[in-house]
Amino acid sequence: MDRFQKEITVSKAILERRSIRRFKPDRLTKEQITYLLNLACAAPSAKNSQPWRFVVVMDEQERERICDAMEQGLKRFDGRVGSAWHSLSIMRQAPVNIFIFASGIRDIRLERTILDTVNDMACAQSIGACIENMLLAATGIGLGSLWICDIFYAYEELMQYFGKDETLVAAVSLGIPDEAPGMRPRKPLEEIVEWR
After folding, report:
1. What is the DSSP letter of 40?
2. For residues 106 and 147, what is the distance between their CA atoms, to the nearest angstrom?
3. Splitting the chain (196 residues) into consecutive groups of 10 residues, what average pLDDT does each group show?
4. Three-state DSSP class for 19?
5. What is the DSSP letter of 12?
6. When you count CB atoms within 10 A of the terminal residue's CB, does the N or C end of the chain come out lower?
């Protein structure tokens, strides 16, 4: 695994990470993805629950079937989710798509109590830390990534396709970047921080 590492500090990876929406067609290796998943799973989680579960899609035909299922879900919205269609086109051309499921979050279609909500929020934060680790690790080895939440517009279709008990919470597309976007504007700390 050491051969994937290059001299890059955590702060450099944070500042250089970009949302990549165009990938080269080059295939990634199972070894590269395993490396990223190991680092993703080093994330902290509420009560060390480690609620993340992954479905890694590297096969082109499987990718097409999943994207077709997502397309069916998007059609229900009559064009009102334009960004989701763009996300779908990115997923279709990305060499790898990883679907992230949570074993501790209730299905979004179910009612919840306040305790369910607290648990779901803690689980969602754990999953977020896991995904961010994955994105930073990808940056660290020269790969591009895109964190995708537009999957929720096709939640029913994707849950039916995967047939899993866990709750689908996100997808990440990975590949060799075919673009080099600059850093997007960030709000100044004065707008978002309250000191007490």
Report:
1. H
2. 21
3. 64 93 98 98 97 98 98 88 93 98 82 86 95 97 97 95 95 98 94 96
4. strand
5. H
6. C
Select from 75, 72, 73, 40 the least CA-distant residue to 56: 40
In which region does residue 52 sit, left (phi positive, over 0), alpha (psi from -120 to 50) or beta (all else)? beta
Residue-level length of the chain: 196
Q: Compute how many other C-beta atoms are within 10 angstroms of the C-beta atom of residue 53.
A: 17
Q: Give the span between the Cα atoms of 74 and 100, in whole angstroms.
A: 19
Neighbours of 72 (CB within 10 A): 15
CATH architecture label of 29-177: 3-Layer(aba) Sandwich (3.40)
pTM for the model: 0.92
Q: Where in the chain are the domains?
A: 29-177
Six token digits for residue 178: 């075919």
